[in-house]
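Extended Data, record Polysaccharide biosynthesis protein CapD
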Amino acid sequence: MEEEKKKILIVGAGVAGRELLGQIRKGLKSVYEIVGFADDDPKKLGKKIGGIKVLGAVNALPWIIRKNKVDEVFIAIPSGEGKTIRKVVDKCRKIRVNFKIIPRLLEIVEGKVKLQQVREVKVEDVLGRAILKSKQTVFKDGFRGKRILVTGAAGSIGSEICRQLVSFRPELVVALDWSENGLYDLELELGEKGAKIKYIVANASDYPKMAKTVSYYKPDVVFHAAAYKHVPLMQIFPEEAVRNNIFATEVVARVVKENKVKKFVLLSTDKAVDPTSVMGATKLIAEKIIRSHNGGATKFCAVRFGNVFGSVGSVVPTFKKQIARGGPLTVTDKRMVRFFMSIPEAVRLVLHASLLAKGGEIFVLDMGDQFKIDELARLMIRLAGFVPDKEIKIKYVGVRPGEKMSEELFSKKDKIAKTSVERIFKVKNGREKGISDHDLEALRAAVAEGKRKRVFGILKSFAPNLKNLESI
């Protein structure tokens, strides 16, 4: 007896939807029956796409699903905003029909859809934004044939920089990190793609090692992604934040300048704006270091952005683990909000900003709207198929050391200017106080002598709103 076909409704009758239809007809015609499309474009309503009718708008999903006895919904709107995806997901959940999605990937937006890319809906799908169609030629022209060094290459952002760079045919990517396990995993992943990468196990604060690496590989561009990022931990260990976020930045910047590298890009954070945390203060000082080094043969710039989905140790993976354990999800405060962006989008904008750099800029990425962490927790519980507060609880634990209720991407004193690239801005004026050799030497001495209070005092001179340290 022939197995009954699964009835599929495709939401989105655009390029991705049409490509998905074609892929199903090629490979899984015997498994799936496409009953129709749903699309909010009134011009498409009632028309046929590849012989399949557009049955109605998203608001009509419950009626369409019931009438056509749909088994599963495929969401094929990779250029859609998160709120649009959320609307589709909510309607599917209420009528208890399975749903999957084609993710926001540039190749999918451009119509290169593969059936294997259809997957479960993730939180970044319903919170993320429509992906911008960046012309690949811009990046290929900017990075083809170049030698590029990435510090912190095993981290969430650094590894994605490496992934994206290799597709633009650079002469060489040098991936540097102190984490041997992280570099090993990256090598396994990118080795399968035949990418030309050298992997270096090193600490970015090690001047002799960095000087030897830069002198030997002669990079054209350095992306400095190595940093400590966990706010509460750095409130306890300020000397480690100073070592990794300040001293390492100064070492890499000095080596880059000595070797006349063409461009240096510091990855910064929204927590560097009027910082209340040790981590934010160290990144603010890192920004000052690269601006003080700017000039001569090397163009220095920084790119500032907020939280990214799925980075190691961030809230999304934490919530996933807590859901898997059956809860509760720990939320600091109902009112706390944060910016969020997908890692691929953040990196694409970082790469684009690097190509704009003339020297001395602090670029700021448009992160969209801030989102309540409490709502994020509830959304993730619902996406996992549970009911918040009933099946999985939420526990409010209070604001952690050094945290703000909300973040800013620039201070009230900053003047922001548009660039030629959508979603990338630049700070026109720098802060008045720079970083002197005397300040750096004082920090080195305090760290070397283990004087935590002295370290804190120097940081506070740059960040007056800095919250007190936590005891070890």
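Summary. Confidence is low (pLDDT under 50) at residues 107-111.
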